[in-house]
Amino acid sequence: MPIATHVSTETEPAARGRELGRARRAELHAAFGRYDELFRAEGARPGQVAGWGARALAETRAWAPALADEMTGMAEGAGLEPWQLGALNGRTEILAALAVTGEGECSAAVVLPPSGAPRTVQTWDWHDTFREGMLLWSMDRVQTFTEFGVVGKIGVNGDGLGLHFNVLRHASDHSDIGVPVHVVARRILDEASTVTEAVELARSARLSASSVLTVVTYDGERGDAVCLELSPERVGELPVGEDGVLLHTNHFLDEKLAAGEQTTNEVSSTFDRLPGLRDRVSALDTADRTERARALHSHRETGPGICAHADHTLPAHLRWESLATLSLDVAAGRLYAHEGGPCRIEPDGWQSAPFESDE
Asked: Peptidase C45 hydrolase domain: from which residue to which, for each copy (predicted)?
């Protein structure tokens, strides 16, 4: 099935949220139901999620009030409680509060050629039961691949800035819910046009969970990129090297932050996937997004498992699958999404929601 799409016609945040909520009421209710089930499977007690969701919304209102308005508008339009939208946007923070470990998500690669636009690709790995929760959303001058109810994730804006997203787990993660990392991603897409601006925004948020945002920019002549390893302890910066290559999976690479790494070989393939990406750099250095995505075709039985498939002998909350493959064209301001992992990539399978100005 293709990934669901939505093009916003409203530009005021609360109205934009209400518009999406009304248009996708059933999908938003289903999204909360899936996460509520996941939280309970991971040990959430009655009342905890409501409290954490309310706190995530409050932290968003303090740091990014326009996005809090969008979230409450979405709740109103869909007939949900505002805290439920807080819980959806704070899903990474809630899972960190529950001290969840597991496979992790996603492998991302950026290559900056000597001339021309950056070349990017990533897998989005999550529980296979969340397949119907994916959304490709176009608004104003931002496109984002996200989940129903979540204000942003992977995306690109009209200023030539794009963002990839991978989860991390750190010893400093805690249950005093901070600004959701998904809110940080969206605000960067909304407001930043340079790597420096993205770094400043990320450093201004009080966090309670960890993730890495790979920010990539292009000014029409040259590209730039940085991995921002977000954690409650600090934000680490990993600039692109002289070789123009920036790769990340689901463990910390910043030397200081790596001392608090909470992901292990026993639960995750991340330590195999990163060298697997390095082995594929020459194949990733192509202007053809289909060929870049196909370069990530590697299953765990025969390689580093960059393309993941669910083990249906496990319970739903322990199963992982590459649900989508994404590529950013920051020169054109477009995000391309393909349903499924790298082994399913076809040239005509890419989706890209147009900006409003294109319609």
From this structure: 120-268
